[in-house]
């Protein structure tokens, strides 16, 4: 019976590339680990098991007189098994699983686990079930015949990638967990990010770069650092344990993205923690219809944001793709203008006869900023009245300078607006939706240069409210701007204002107007649009070809399939069935929003958790879901019924949680990433 250390190592880490070669003091991460493992008195052999993309590991570390095996990249269980077969391990041999990103693995602790396994005639011994040692000192030892059993029976991708989960679940095995006397499980000594690397370097330098430092010395240092309120709080009191273990490839990439991209990405609504920390797929490899594929190759039906409302005709629409690819081949930019601008303007104005002219931008935020600029230039007045969500620009966020609560009904509550100049305070002011008295009160200011609002989002407008706003703005010659970024083309051929037969002076359209391509449009009355000649509104990228080509193709395809009718019908069907399955499961449900952007809330103090629970449970069925969705033409009845069937099962569990605290805490513990 031999004790064989197998170090799981690779260079193609998504979060911190080549992390095991990163310098900690004067050594690489893997070098420290190897040198420490060689101090074990009970191990017989050390093998590095890597993938074929990491062959240079052998060149670097051959000098340490250890063995190497290069096998399967994704199926690590297979890599371990084939490694053991190559080196002729016997059934009763002990395999010690170590990961290469844990340089401070303790050789004395390893020997203690090996001795325990031998003395008690165990089959599995570890220090992670539950964890009490720092993350980065994890050791699991198991018999080769258990690995063999896992290799032949494990089918789950998670089990194939992480080796030990299946082994832990094998019934009737003799196993034991070794615990530390003091719980240090919140300390992160593993290497996944730049902040981890900085912390490991600090620790190693404090220990005088002594390769053979003892766990006792390390613990004393950690206690000292915690008492001193040290800067490395993130690693001293981490909520992320074994971060690679349960994370998708996409989320691993996200954790790396946070170190190289400010905020991780450019859109708050696409941040994975907004949906489900650690488990949300985060990145897509391809998208088609209402399906997306993540970086692990898993296919999900999207019953959530559908590109944050952009893909009304479904992802990667064939008709639009054909037009766009043709435009790309002809050249997307030149010193001259693209003629598609004119074709698009002509087509749009045919079915928007309330408007005289259009102007193009590439994002909703830009279009709104242009609209406000035009209103101010036309009116000669500075202040703007707003009602709704209108983006991130200074003109909008300045409403929160006086009070962080001004935008609470439209934006994230208590949104901080640092960076918005203080002198803009009072330049924008909010008014309450469906409250005409509040509007009249705010309109008394003689310096109002424009009114901008969403006609409908979560709540239907009172006709008298819209009619009175239109009357008052006309009487005072104040431009009325309708923000149709979200609602445009979802209830009618144009803006949602068509439903109420009240036309604005300006309207902007974004998101779905080009079915996912970067494009937005401002339409309006001639005299206000021509106010652009009094100011400066210009941008190079507003003249590229792809946006208007995609928008023209999208509008024509919408007309062909009468998309606004289809998605409204399907949205109402979904709303009706939400109510039905909620009633079936004795849940009180509030349903709101326009037909094709329906939302619901379960009437419960626990709803914030239930929203997360829904996402977690539906992910298991390969469905992206939360408490709202953007309906698209690609959401067929077959797919919708499958979604509703699975949501019914989730509602059943929520109903159980509402009546039984034990069930609630059981599900809550299972939902979140295991710390």
Q: What report would you give on this structure?
A:
A seven-stranded mixed β-sheet has the order 5-4-1-6-8-7-9, sandwiched between helices. It has a seven-stranded mixed β-sheet with strand order 13-19-18-17-16-14-15, with helices on both faces. The protein has a four-stranded mixed β-sheet with strand order 10-11-12-22. A hairpin with a 2-residue loop joins strand 2 and strand 3. The protein has three domains: 3-236, Alpha-Beta Complex (Spore Coat Polysaccharide Biosynthesis Protein SpsA, Chain A); 246-313 and 562-675, Aspartate Aminotransferase, domain 1 (Alpha-Beta Complex), CATH 3.90.1150.10; 318-561, Type I PLP-dependent aspartate aminotransferase-like (Major domain) (Aspartate Aminotransferase, domain 2, 3-Layer(aba) Sandwich), CATH 3.40.640.10. It contains 24 helices and 22 strands. The protein has 675 residues and is α/β, with parallel strands linked by helices. Helix 3 (76-86) packs across helix 5 (144-153) and helix 21 packs parallel to helix 23. Helices cover 39% and strands 14% of the residues.
